[in-house]
Specification:
This protein is mainly α. The protein has one domain. Helix content is about 45%, strand content about 0%.
Length: about 55
Amino acid sequence: MKIRNADKRIILTDEQVEAMQENGLKRSDVYNRIFGLNWTVDKAVSKPVRGRN
């Protein structure tokens, strides 16, 4: 579930925070995915970080 307001705050559920931690994501990664790439909150926390070449 995504919850946003006008000042671009993101409210994450406990399950979303757990998924974020399991996938090695920082809060800034999730924020950039949501507002920079227009991803949904669920997609932003569930996709792991790609490794660099």
